[in-house]
Specification:
- The complex is a heterodimer of chains A (304) and B (387).
- Chain A is mostly helical.
- Chain A contains eleven helices and two strands.
- In chain A, 78% of the residues lie in helices and 1% in strands.
- Chain A has a two-stranded antiparallel sheet.
- In chain A, a hairpin with a 6-residue loop joins β1 and β2.
- In chain A, α5 crosses α6 and α8 runs antiparallel to α11.
- Chain A starts with a helix and ends in a 5-residue tail after the last helix.
- Chain B has three domains: 38 residues; 103 residues, no CATH class; 218 residues, MetI-like (MetI-like fold, Orthogonal Bundle), CATH 1.10.3720.
- The relative contact order of chain B is 0.11.
- Classes of the chains: A mainly alpha (304), B mainly alpha (387).
Chain lengths: 304, 387
Amino acid sequence: MVKTSENNNEKFIRFLLIFASVISILTTIGILFSILFQAIEFFQLRSFWYFISGTEWTPGRQDSQFGALPIFAGTLMITFLALLVAIPIGVGSAIYMSEYASRFRRNLLKPILEILAGIPTVVYGFFAALTIAPGIVEICESIGLDAAYNSALACGIVMGVMIIPVIASLSDDVLRAVPNSQRNASLALGMTHSETIRNIVVPSAMPGIISASLLGLSKAIGETMIVVMAAGLRPNLTWNPLEDMTTVTVRIVDSLVGDHAFDSPDTLSAFALGLMLFVVTLILNMLSLSQIRKFKAKYKVNTL
Amino acid sequence: MSNNPFNDPSLAGRHRSAYLFKWFTRGSILITLAFLFFFLFDMVRTAYPAMWQAQVKVDVSYNKKSARLSQKAIDKKYRKIVSRAWLRTIPKQLEEKPELMDTTVNQWVLADDQVDQYLKGHHHKLKPKQIKVVEELKSKGLLELKWNNIFFSKGDSKIPENAGLLSAMIGSILTLLVTMFIAFPLGVATAVYLEEFAKDNWLTRFIEVNINNLAAIPSILFGLLGLAVFINLFGMPRSSPLVGGLTLALMTLPIIIVSSRAALRSVPDSIRQAGYGLGLTRVQIVQDHVIPVAFPGILTGSIIGLAQAMGETAPLIIIGMIAFIPDSPGSIFEAATVMPAQIFTWAGMPERAYIEKTAAGIVVILTILLSLNAFAIYLRKKYEIKW
């Protein structure tokens, strides 16, 4: 008698635990469907092909057009600038921490990187708009160039700093997981320390570094506050990073903050852009995970 | 040198490149550090003036006229010097203290933001005539920068000298209470299920892949989920801490799950086997022996998740938590704003006086986040068990 009641109790608790785990699946499904349905509604109103290939983005008008190409281009430009800053500095920092730094310095540097990772993005945005962007305008003026106050360059630099900790801490973990026997073998053959790092350690850790960079890329594409505060609103198809550009996330925020009816194409366009964002970041995360799995399988590490 | 058989002519170059490479890596960490310190220095420097607020000592005449048109309470000469926000409180003051009627009180009152900015040496819009009055008052010691007690005691305001962080702080607390109330039990339960109970089948693997993906989905998409599901489908009140808290809870969930799993995994199997040896059931072992040992680790991860939820802005903008909220919300169903959203709103204000308020808000939120993280690290160090 006692036994059965205990069994029922156990079953009940187990059921509760399974229920909790399923919430995470429900969240993903919820995100996917809440975006998908509205996006489908949008594509019933406006052409899908024009959305991904058109160059005119003119919401809020009678004959509004939604060609998102300049928005995608702006996103890619700012992301590219961010990675240009973050990959060399992030990987360089990771190499210093894992290969050169003493135990004491490493223990000091890791928390500092964690501080950088913990700064809210709205703070980075304010810093980009208040300090970095006017600084860039001044520097450009002094060398005779014309820069906008909401230039893509300012956003790119600050966003790059934001993803340095993402790239550095994952790369650091991967570099440290490379077995010491490889380093010792290389040093025994007469390679210098830096040659060992460049020719042996970094190539071995490459899948992990690629995975970290992909994760940084996905973070940069989905980043919202920095670009909302420091980038432009105007879709602008250009190669010049000193001009203002807009990004997918800026347009999502802009079209949902205004007072449009919920089923107007203006509001629904946010969900179409959100769908693109979801698909792209999902693919990047999958690629990133598969790279790190490759590394784990090769060196049989479980700590990553 | 040339007859030394061990001499390698390329060695000098190789050492030089080794030296350069070491400096490249050292340089990148130095750039990161330099940025962090420059950034913190810049924020504190910008925020510093917000500690003080200009106040002016003037005659305030309380009478029937000034009760109706509060500007009349101040001599015409000083009218522009006094804050409009303070003038608006005159009828309320009379209501609270009727004995003030028909008296003239010489007292310190809040000064206008332009006067405040002039005294701090920032850009201002005072006219030459007003500057003369300000200088005259200043030389008499009737106009001073005093300790700013409004910042933590008042809510948002469209008048910069009267704007404070209080309503946003209360909004943040309510929102995060909802977040932790949902995310902590769900996250720990999921981690316990995956670590202690789940068999290695398709459902388990699917949940694991899902959690990994959820952790990397851009936060703004959680805002779209909140808008479409919580507000439009379930009809929850827009801008409320309830919706904000639920949205943030879903975002915090993966962080809590991952760190709780790591904490549970670090509990040695010998504890579980001892429990089985004594005839305990699996639930009893987990509940009475595994979770208590793993609890500090679980708590650490949850605090870090809480800190992250606290700084999140993008999804809250989507669900409307950037509304203008002068009064603190009384419950989780009322419209509210949170600290990072308040920072965002102030950053977009045209008046110069909001810049220092924004930076001050940033210093406050960074202080809270750093203390939370430091507390988490302290907990981890204190209760770390080496098996």
